[in-house]
Amino acid sequence: MADFTLDLRGLGSHAHTRAYYTLKELRPGQVFEVLLDQAPEMLMEAVSLQLRHGIHWQTDAEGPPLWRLSVRRREDVEPVDLVDLLTRDHLRIDRLFASALHKVNAEDLSGAEPDFRAYVTGLRRHIQVENELIVPLLDLPRHPSGQDPTSVMLREHEQILEQTALLEGQFDEGVDAGWEVAPFFALISGALAKHEGREETNLFPHWSRALRSLPDGGTQLLARAKAILAGESRDAKAR
């Protein structure tokens, strides 16, 4: 049973704007029914991209003349594959970091520290999955110049881990004022945004195709990645 019906029929080019501003307000557990008089793929993929893939949609009735969709928040459904899991984890890590940054700016340092520590743990597990689990099994051709997407990703991982370790050291020693750590947060924030954008654009599509070519469609990799991200496994190289 849908909580809300979004009727986009007859809106033409304005359907995208209406869909974006409505679906961005989706709350956990809610289901929106979306009605369309056009095939939904291009519209919904564009809206999903704007919302950083934060929504999940499925077609319940296929037109013409009417398409009926069910739309939920992405975290309300299970990840469909390893790339879906990693995309969601980007969002989770970003939210933890943004929450810590917001609290630092508000001089709520005692509130910022737990969020920052959770970000550190999440970041390290995420990078472990990509470096130790995915790269050895789904690696792409490398270029001697080191400018191929995989080599760039690995270098950026190292840089972000180093920057994060410096900030972690500040918290270990004790932070008395927000200005002491604000430059570190600004540096990492910019690096994370660029890095995640490059990964999602340059690597995730290739990984998705490689996963589909595996005999099990990547089901075992998905299970192993989930265990690592949840802290239930440290052995990414286990077979």
Low-confidence regions: none
Helix content: 55-70%
Number of strands: 4
- Could you give the order of the helices and strands? EHEHEEHHHHH
Rg result: 20 Å
C-alpha termini separation: 42 Å
Overall pLDDT, averaged? 91
Indicate the structural class: alpha+beta
Overall 3D form: globular
Strand content: 5-15%
Number of helices: 7
Tell me about the largest β-sheet.
Answer: 4 strands, mixed
Strands of the largest sheet, in order across it? Answer: 1-2-4-3
Quickly describe the structure.
It contains 7 helices and 4 strands; from the N terminus they run E-H-E-H-E-E-H-H-H-H-H. It is of the alpha+beta class.
Q: How would you portray this structure in words?
A:
It is a single chain. Strands 1-2-4-3 form a four-stranded mixed beta sheet, with helices on one face. It is an alpha+beta fold. Helix 1 packs across helix 2 (41-50). It has helices at residues 15-23, 41-50, 82-105, 109-138, 149-173, 182-213, 219-229; strands at residues 4-7, 31-36, 55-61, 67-73.
Provide the fold topology.
Elements lengths: L3 E4 L7 H9 L7 E6 L4 H10 L4 E7 L5 E7 L8 H24 L3 H30 L10 H25 L8 H32 L5 H11 L10
Parallel strand pairs: 1-2
Antiparallel strand pairs: 2-4, 3-4
Helix pairs in contact: 1-2, 3-4, 3-6, 4-5, 4-7, 5-6
